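#struct-queue
[09:14] JT: dropping the first one here, sequence first, then the structure tokens:
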Amino acid sequence: MIDDELLTEIRGKFAHVDTCPFQGPRVFFENAGGALTLKSVVETSAKFTGIPDNQGRDNPASRALVDVIAKSKEAALDWFGASDGTVFVGESGTELLFRLIRTAVVGTSGGVLIGSTVEHPASQSAMAHWAQKMGRDYRLVSHDDTLGLVTAEAYADAVTPDTKVATILHTSPVTGMGMDVVAISKAIRAVAPEIFIIVDGIQHASHGLVDLVAADVDGYVVSPYKVFSRHGYGVAWVSERLTDLGPENLDGGPERNWEMGTRDTGAYATFHDVVDYFDWLGSQVGGGDTRRERIEAAGAAVKAHEKTLTDAMLHGTGNLKGLAEMEGVTIIGGVDNPAREGLVCFWADSVSAPDIVAALNAEGVRTHVRKADHYSGNILTPLGQDAAVRVSMCHYNSIDEVARFLSVMAQVLDA
């Protein structure tokens, strides 16, 4: 769906797509740590940084800012695939997960809280913190070490009728595997229909579609710097019923307001740039009469192209062997895993993960080492590993870049 001509046009829309301003020419396979930034986001950031006015004033500039925010929220609802609810920005994805989870846990009484062992500490830590503060029973559903994910069946076995809050990780930033959020949500609600479900969508956001109508959840959080925008803010969607629990507000202020203090109009505007990009991409790969239909077309194209990239990385391209064919290399989550989303994480018996990452970087191929720390220990420790190499791609990456990676890897493992 994304041919060479379109890929060239796509790459032209991103800053520093093949050159690091500090290192020089390089292949960027560290997208899970933060994706490339749209050039339009850079321009929009500069534009709104220079505007001195705030919202809520009686002047043309203020009214224009309010209008930008309103249109950005409307665009974000289309991107999330939500029919109602509220979109708002916060400090970061992690901060927003803490806030949504706090509201859900404090706003319910008694009962059980559940999450899973595959989750990022952003959601696990928030649940554990508020479970301890509120004296609640917090239980973790075990993920499948072999597949690198947690299943709906595992949640179904763990949920009880008195479960009040559940968290789901949409995609793991370590294994690269996507969870079946729709199936997990359905399995949970079959037992506890009134439960509040909050999803960490931070890793998934750049790799495919978000459909909150199908998901039937109460909160979904993304970090825009991982989906082609900039650092400095997070975006959350919350259901009406989660808002009914009553987020913190200023005394005398609006009771259903999630926004605290003056909003950064530029944050909203740069997320609108992200939505506009998906809208444009969808128009190039199938189109549609509505913005949502074009976003859906874009999501399908992204998924297909990234599968082409990961298949080439695993099974080879041209005369280059893939990682799965290299002696002593183990792929986390297995080789042919249909849940994989643009990411391959592996270790080699003959060369340590930090040394592989350093050798790749010296040859202009940017990857990342995941260590068995508080971020990745939940995945690596059960596998008996203290570190692994994460190679994370996005749809703007090319087969030529995969070939460059495999060429260097062959040299590294032969050294």
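[09:21] JT: and here's the second one, same format:
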Amino acid sequence: MYKEVLRSIEGIGVYPSIALVMFLTFFIGLIIYLNRHGREYFQDIARLPLEDEKDVNNNHKGAHS
């Protein structure tokens, strides 16, 4: 039943290609974002819940985002 409905829609074959391009763009962008920040940035962020408030303020003054 669904196959016949989908076959009757003109241009339906374009949507899977658009979805693929969107997902690839997202994941490539995510990889670029993660590589730009570097491992040290994410290790610092992971340690934040374990540090005292004054340690956090002293360690991250002047840090760029």
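[09:30] RK: nice, looked through the second one.
[09:31] RK: The chain has one domain: 14-59.
[09:31] JT: good to know. The helical segments are 2-8, 14-47, 53-59.
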